[in-house]
Design goal:
- With 232 residues, the chain is mainly beta.
- It folds into two domains: 95 residues; 94 residues.
- It is built from one helix and 15 strands; from the N terminus they run H-E-E-E-E-E-E-E-E-E-E-E-E-E-E-E.
- The strands form two sheets. Strands 1-2-4-6-7-8-9-10-11-12-13-14-15 form a 13-stranded mixed β-sheet, with no helix packed on it. A two-stranded parallel ribbon has the order 3-5.
Length: 232
């Protein structure tokens, strides 16, 4: 069996285009990886078409097909997963992990996006998005901390928000300086008491603090509110 596997792998390596390079502390593994690096070191690139545009850069790690696809240079990036950081061209210090995490970011810095589609459309900097589709539709909003599946899902330009919990701040679009803590408990009617996450329906409010499942469930545009407790 081991001999058969070795023969199969050897045969595939003869017919499938791929590259394995190691120079100046760089490692490139996969089809069309690493572009034409003229000046760079400590680059680790693995996956079909991962980092195909790289020409310079240092201390970048790209793992996954088409990860860092548009990256030409930059520092201290870590991309893991299919098409992570796909549109990023340069800058530094981004961590994108998960299918298409950080896909739309072109020039942002100091972001942490963990989860499939986390911060997928964000072009901003200094955001932390953790969870499946967390802040998926955020564009220019920055300095946000969004943790939870689909938390801040519809947020576009709002900044300085803290959303913690599944679908916390789900409908918020442009609101800023909000703190929504509390996730949905089930998938029933999204406006039914315990099924609502904190700040679920708040769209444009600012300076709100909602803590508890369903807190602020009826507040759509209000600002400067503090609501604490279950369905407060």
């Amino acid at each position: 069996m081991k001999t058969s596997i070795i023969k199969l792998v050897s045969a595939l390596l003869l017919v499938i285009p791929w590259s394995l390079q190691s120079q100046d502390g760089n490692l490139f593994l996969g089809t069309a990886t690493g572009g034409t690096v003229t000046f760079g070191d400590s680059l680790t690139v693995a996956g079909a078409q991962a980092g195909p545009s790289l020409s310079t850069g240092r201390f970048n790690t790209l793992y996954g097909a088409r990860s860092g696809f548009s990256l030409t240079n930059g520092l201290y990036h870590a991309f893991f997963g299919y098409a992570t950081g796909f549109n990023l061209t340069s800058t530094s210090d981004n961590v994108f992990i998960g299918n298409e995490a950080g896909w739309g970011n072109v020039s942002g810095t100091d972001n942490v996006n963990l989860g499939s589609h986390a911060g997928r459309l964000s072009t901003a900097s200094d955001n932390v998005f953790i969870g499946k589709s967390a802040a998926e539709n955020t564009t220019t909003g920055q300095d946000n901390t969004v943790i939870g599946s689909e938390a801040g899902f519809n947020q576009t330009t709002g900044g300085d928000n803290v959303f913690l919990g599944r679908q916390a701040g789900y409908l918020s679009t442009t609101g800023s300086y909000n703190v929504f803590i509390g996730g949905r408990s089930d998938d029933s009617d999204p406006y039914a008491s315990a099924a609502v996450s904190a700040g679920y329906a708040n769209v444009t409010g600012i300076y709100n603090t909602f803590v508890g499942a369903g807190a602020g469930r009826d507040c759509s545009t209000g600002s400067r509110n503090t609501l604490i407790g279950y369905v407060a």
